[in-house]
């Protein structure tokens, strides 16, 4: 009985490590014939997507096969052996590279390849790729990213190596979904494949471009970032219920404003600085920060008006006290006036002594030719002084009343600024709610739109 082994096939093909004829050049009998390399890439896992570095780390399966014109055998002569597995360094392999790759694959390559009886060489390899990917974070965290893997030869032109793909985009997408093991924080959407010819250094080269589309899982960002900032806005809105008296309201608003600032610092560590557009989430934070800042300014203005109202009320109290003191002086003058009337009666009695009525008494008693008694002259001098003081008091009272009337015309009735503060607070609250609702509605409508 014949013993069948793979070594018989290798001996027949003269494939051994000492024979370099199969590994030095392209395996074609005519150099004008291009080697057709069929390539397939399947996505096995999404390991990481770093927005700040704009790098994409996928785990892919790469399957490629080509024709070797120097390898063939008849399976019937070798116990129906149709394929043999040999070390990869024995045969020639195409020098394919990925343009977006930034780090060398750390996973060890597959040490073996498979050859078939008709000369087909099959290589299967898995790789962890660290590639560049231009992140579009305009709609973060509701964004859909597309990262490309461009595969081409390093030195061979299109006349020497033709890159082809057998599986179309839909088949590649379905197979990748079946093979998918982990997706990190992303959801795999689809995978497209295209073929084009590029001319990087003067010679044309075939390039196969695989584009991977993935959607971010946004629930964690909504819970950990968007909702807390929205809650801060609601807290700032509820601060309108706090009294404007004292500094508690300003302290509360400043604390909420600082909390939003901390959230912005956290956001700055997530988003890349090389983005083409300002992300909507940054506009969201800046808009809420601006609303809170305007609310803080409105509170400062209200407290300033309250200080003016307090000062006005204090001045009014002082004026009222001065007016009460003036009225007390007026009562004293009335008492003096009543005593003056009593003295006038006495004076009338004195005037009758000289035969002159009281209403016809001359201003200068010396004109009569007689001098009144000493007691009547002193009482007349005192009564004249009382009348002079009473006239001065009436003038002072008239001046104070005129001053109060002018102040009332300028500042209005008592509580003028208090009423103004209530009107301004009510109007700003309505404006604040309206502006916040419109702003949030606009943000979420743009976020959930299909196109950027």
TrEMBL record:
Where would you find the membrane-spanning parts of this chain?
A: 219-242, 278-297, 427-447
Lineage at the top is:
Eukaryota, Metazoa, Chordata, Craniata, Vertebrata
Pfam families reported in the protein's UniProt record = Neur_chan_LBD, Neur_chan_memb
Record function comment: Forms serotonin (5-hydroxytryptamine/5-HT3)-activated cation-selective channel complexes, which when activated cause fast, depolarizing responses in neurons.
Q: Which Gene3D superfamilies match?
A: Neurotransmitter-gated ion-channel ligand-binding domain (2.70.170.10), Neurotransmitter-gated ion-channel transmembrane domain (1.20.58.390)
Q: Name one GO molecular function term.
A: extracellular ligand-gated monoatomic ion channel activity
Q: Which GO terms describe its cellular component?
A: postsynaptic membrane
Family, per entry: Belongs to the ligand-gated ion channel (TC 1.A.9) family.
Q: Read off the InterPro entries from this record.
A: LGIC_TM_5-HT3, Neur_chan_lig-bd, Neur_chan_lig-bd_sf, Neur_channel, Neuro-gated_channel_TM_sf, Neuro_actylchol_rec, Neurotrans-gated_channel_TM, Neurotransmitter_ion_chnl_CS
The keyword Protein biosynthesis appears for this protein: no
Q: From which domain of life does this come?
A: Eukaryota
* Keywords for the protein's UniProt record, in alphabetical order: Cell membrane, Disulfide bond, Glycoprotein, Ion channel, Ion transport, Ligand-gated ion channel, Membrane, Postsynaptic cell membrane, Receptor, Signal, Synapse, Transmembrane, Transmembrane helix, Transport
* Protein topology in the membrane: Multi-pass membrane protein
User: Where does the UniProt annotation locate this protein?
Assistant: Postsynaptic cell membrane
Indicate what this protein is called per its UniProt record: Uncharacterized protein
> Which residues belong to any copy of the Neurotransmitter-gated ion-channel ligand-binding domain?
24-217
Instruction: List every stretch annotated Disordered.
Output: 314-333
PANTHER family per record: NEUROTRANSMITTER GATED ION CHANNEL
Catalytic activity as recorded in UniProt:
Ca(2+)(in) = Ca(2+)(out); K(+)(in) = K(+)(out); Na(+)(in) = Na(+)(out)
Describe the location of the Neurotransmitter-gated ion-channel transmembrane domain by residue ranges: 226-323
